[in-house]
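2 proteins. here.
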Amino acid sequence: MWFERRSRADNESETPESNQIEESSAELAELVSETEAFLSGDALSLFQRSGRVAPAWAWLNALAHGDLDCIRRVRKMCTEESAALADAQEEAWAVSDPLEDSWREVAMRREAWRSAERVLADELLELVEDDSEMLRRIQASAILPLELQILDSEGRDALSPFELVQSTRAALRSILS
């Protein structure tokens, strides 16, 4: 859903009134859930749980909204997931035909995003050390505005993991210089 809107006229022409209320309630519940996930820094998990491909801004979401402990967990999870994926890939390469394993492309794409997220978490934690107030200032002045900019332009200019790292570094440099 991510901030999609449907007009009341569209709803009225598609379903009977009783179904409209149920549909509107379901849409409202989904919107509330997505908004809570966005504001708490858990948007990426919401995308992953629902099986949807996460857009670039979702990979930045925890860094834009999370506290120090959250960012440390992100870094740890990225590191653990990368190690597990490397082990699985090594085992799979030994027993399968690389041309037939479509999962590899998906896994490599996910690893690229996880690596970008890990790099940014590492750099952010190094920058703020253990200073929660500094983290909040950096989030408010650099990371959150970048997240919103990416969210706004996602349909037109989808970023790669590398571009996300570069954009975030540029945003951080702009407030630190």
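next one coming up
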Amino acid sequence: MGTGPWKPPPSRLELEVLDAVWTLGEASSADVVEAVRRRRPLAPTTIRTVLHNLRRKGYVVPVPSLERGFRWKAAVTHQAVARRSIRELLRSLFDGSPRQAIALLLKDEELTADDLAEIRRLLDAKRSRRDAP
């Protein structure tokens, strides 16, 4: 998302529907409705409206099909949406400081030894890339 045109951020409900599209890969509207309704009791018309809003915002695109209705696929990756959401969260809640956000998470979250080991591995890898010639 950082390389393409600016898109309005997806709402929480849009993220739920988009998550279903990511999970399904390419799916009919009926498939998306079924997947979302397994998690949350929403009207099919609501889910279809959200799909069309996601299309308008550029998060999903219709796929040509011989079926009745559209098939959908994501136009953006989960990672791209997550990266942008984290950046917006950092800007709005932490004055753009990843350090403040990480400090809060380390202080307030219950992290397992495995979580801490993975965080250490990521930090070491980041340091190695930064220090490399």
